[in-house]
Amino acid sequence: MQSQVIQQSAVRQLESEIRSNIAKLLVAMTICCALIEIGMGLYFWVSQTMHQTPSEYIVFRILQPTVLNALLCLLVFAANHSKEHQDRFRNRVAAISLIVFAAQISWVHSYFIPMWCLSLFALMYVSVFHDPFFQRIEAGICLGSIGLSCWQHIADYPEQLSFSLQCLAVAEFVGVLIIYMSFQLESFSRKEFLLNAESDAGKRRYQSEYEKDKLTGVYSRAYLIEQSSYIFDNCNEFSPAGIAMLDIDDFKKVNDTYGHDNGDVVLQKFGEILNSYNDGNTFCGRYGGEEFVIVFKYGEPKMNCDTIEELRADFEKASFPFMDEHVTLSAGYYNAEAQTDFDTALKMADDALYISKRSGKNRLTVHNKAEAM
After folding, report:
1. Which of the four CATH numbers 3.30.70.270, 3.20.20.70, 3.40.50.2300, 2.40.10.270 does domain 221-366 have?
2. C-beta contacts of 38-42 below 8 A and 24+ residues apart
């Protein structure tokens, strides 16, 4: 469930970026188209090759397209910033606006026949929104745009009627092919996304299972060793590291007396308490069975031992409905002030733990100190 939420959030973020890019593109193209039309109008007027009156050119070639383009820009910006509509609505507004923008360019410049298919390229771009139903509507608009461009070409050049119709047939045929390719591209892209989403979810599940111990929720043995090895490989007298080996006292007796299911409850409770101590300095994990390890990234013996004692006291206070007595904890601590491999550091902490066990349990022993703390 959490992985699906993450995927959906990532998709929404990507779609938001695409809509924002479309809005910026429309603004830039509106300005560029207006400047180009003004420049072309000046050229036609100076060279006396303008086939319209200046007022007709200004209205049809400059004012009408610029106003329409500006309205499309405002429409996309309004939809993108609206809190009343869902993402699908925003996507559709952005897609239609881009297609209509491209279509009106082909209408205005119908004399340049390759422009007739410009809206089809916009269709291929907006297929990234993965909206197959609405994509069919967009495809219809694109084919209609080709027909309108042809109609405008016939109105401008009635003497080329036969040629215009031939171009229309070719353009519509090409349009159908591009639309088919667009549909296939959208379908392939959607399937690829789903495969990637499943793969990412699998990786996250594997990573979660690798990092965490299923029963207790603390770090797993493999992940504990991996992370701790780096810490002890890089420690020195200026940057020491500490390690504690923890063992639940008489845990076999708990299992034998109250059953393994209740023994798991004890382990889960201890894991819950351990996790509350996971912070920037401590790194807690289950080493195996009822044995747990805490790695202290900062080797400050007194502070670390105080933490262990606090943890030991918290666990001793825990109560379980299936038993009257409390469960206790023994610990051994070792402080490394030179580069040390993890196994060696753990062995030192384990030796100290053995002293705690032999000295009556429910206590902490620091390595190289015979007395229990």
Report:
1. 3.30.70.270
2. 38/62
